Amino acid sequence: MQKEKITIVGGGVAAMTAAVYLTEQADWQQKREITVYQQGWRLGGKGASGRNSHFAERIEEHGLHVWFGAYVNSFRTLQGVYNSLNRPATRPLATWQEAFKPHSFIALQEYIDNEWQTWPIDFPTVAGNPADGSLDITVWDFVTMTLAWLKKWTEDIEEICEQHHAETRLVTKKSRDQSLLKYMYQKIKTDIDHTLSSTKQFINDIESDAGEIISSPRSLLTHLLQFSSQQTTHTDTQADRLVIWYIVRKLKRWFKAQVIDLLDDSPELRRLFISADLAIAMLTGLIKDKVYRDGFAVINCYDFRQWLEKNGANKAYSVNSAPIRGFYDLVFAYPDGDFNKPDVEAGVAALAMLRIGLCYKGGVMWKMQAGMGDVIFAPVYELLKKRGVKFKFFHQLTNLEAGQDTQGKAVVSKVELCQQVKLAVGEYEPLVDVKGLPCWPSEPIFSQIEPSQAHLLQEYQINLESFWTSWPEVYEEQFKKPLPSIKLTHGVDFDILILGVSVASLEHLASELIELDSNLAKQSQQVKSVATQACQVWLNKTDQQLGFDYTVLSKEKPILSGFVEPFDTWAAMANLIDKEDWPKHNAPVNIAYFCSALSCNSYPVATNHQFPIKMKEAVKANMKNLFNLDMSALWPNAYDSNNQFDWQVFFNDPSSILPVFEQQYWRANIDPSERYVLSVTGSSQYRLATDGTMFNNLRITGDWIKTGVNAGCVEAAVMAGMQTSRSLCGYPEIISGEYAFEKTDKSIK
């Protein structure tokens, strides 16, 4: 039997996930050959990281890389990689549990009375392994879980209201509304919670058919949660939905009458109200917009903020609150980096927020204990090499040609690649050892490149990963000929092409395919991406010494969002210091990562080699402004009496001749392969499945295709890679959570 030849172009999460699952079966090499072509010297795409040998092998990332505890498919895949790799226990980060640690402390920033205030949230730890979780949660499961949180918040709100002598009695007079409460009561009467003070009167009023039914917010929600949890057939019963609808609307009216006027005098009450108000808006929208029946895609015609306001979220306090701004920051939801025009699909956002908050195991987040390249892509590379996958580094995709196969079906007929460098060795070995851990370096290993080319690359500081690289001109000027290229032919060099580049690359690399396939063209045009920026600083003071002194039960360092633009997100990453190779007696004591979207509304042609320099300078300026103007809200002790930032809080590497600021790290993620994939309003409908193009031998993959997430993140990319593998070999059969956007049951009215 002739082996199927699979060519993978790109080394990001989705492409590598596809390769992992395609090689799971023991006899896979009897069926197929797999070759990965990757530009530059490392895998990872926008998830790549590198080790800087000039600064103690420090970790340099594209941005802040953490995983959520609801990334079920990602953790399941990673667990499989580490188990299969079976690293010796004596090696650093030998298991995935060593490579990731659960994280519970999230901080949000509120701008109140012209100053920033920190909203610390220490999420509860949930027992279990995220790899054993599930995203196959029905909308009604989400309703019940959200009601549980709403009950908790409402209990706290009611307690504060009682302290302020606000009215906490809820009176139901209308016969229609009373019939709903009576309906609920009949469902739970044998098990109703009698511990609440108002329950006795509630029961008496119902059973005596009183003119008024008296309850309290906490008791009403307690009964509602019990009702929702007990029902097994309410997905198709309108009365069940009306009960929830009535009670949450009743609660909202109580908020308006008794709670709103107290908010400005109590940060605790304001935050509880915002949380409860958003939960009510979500519950209202899930029912009112029939998400329970039609799936989350039905509300993707709205921006998330628009949908929340449509479903009653308080505009003054909730719609633009810290949790909502923090979510927009999380997914860089600012097309063109315009912070005045946030945009994310309501269905995508609502589903993501519910999953993040309600489906996690362990910590709500999980922090990597080294760079993403070290804990994800190095183990994946090692495993795939061990299994027999071939890797061709320094091969940059330049064009795809369309054609027909022998049956007249449309196919990708040619794959054109630029061979960026000539190797001085037979096969490039990409990893370096840092304190026993295999890692990707932040630049090529020049000793493995032909010496004259290696010299030029260093002399001209060539970036082989850049769309705007000047390497073709430098090479041709030196060697009087263009860079060599290779052309792979369908039926000879490959049978299947897995295209793992990002959506922003399609217009440059697949113009012929786009011209022929109108659906692929729509996806290329409608699924947007945005440039991002990141900076990292190494410090000689702890967070507490800098003035950020929020102590939570978990005793963790913060991951903070919702802050000032253009750097709205900060993560304290001191946990990485011991994974870098600083001298024992002269090392930083702290590391801080910052990231956000980057303003950029147009991208020049590839020959504009100054563009990356210009954009990196813009990030540098933003970084200086962050410390000169803004970080006093978080690090007050880093400023002198004149409110001037003390640059000496930055760690100064004695081995470097650079000024201390220049020793820090910043980058502009502007390349088509690095931009963050967005979910702008109405765009999900244009996403294709992995085999959704007209080209019979093409599989597209990445967080930009149609998955059960439809947003830029690791989980979407992993699901895409799993989908790609399944389309080719039938494995894996199950992808958790992949049908969340689809109609659930046509029989439900």
Overview of this structure, please?
This protein has 23 helices and 26 strands. By secondary structure, it is an alpha+beta fold. The strands form eight sheets. Strands 8-7-21-22-23-20-24 form a seven-stranded mixed β-sheet. Strands 12-2-1-18-26 form a five-stranded parallel β-sheet. Strand 3 and strand 4 form a beta hairpin. Helix 3 packs across helix 23, helix 9 packs antiparallel against helix 10 and helix 12 crosses helix 14. 50% of the residues are buried.
Helix and strand content put the structural class at alpha+beta
User: Helix content range of the residues, please?
Assistant: 25-40%
Rg over CA atoms: 28 Å
Unreliable runs, pLDDT <50, ≥5 residues? Answer: none
Q: Name the overall outline.
A: globular
How many H/I helices? 23
Give a quick account of the main beta sheet: strands, pairing sense, barrel closure: 7 strands, mixed
- How far the N terminus sits from the C terminus, by CA atoms, comes to 52 Å
What's the count of strands? 26
Q: For the largest beta sheet, what order do the strands appear in spatially?
A: 8-7-21-22-23-20-24
Question: Mean of the pLDDT scores?
Answer: 95
| Strand percent estimate | 15-25%
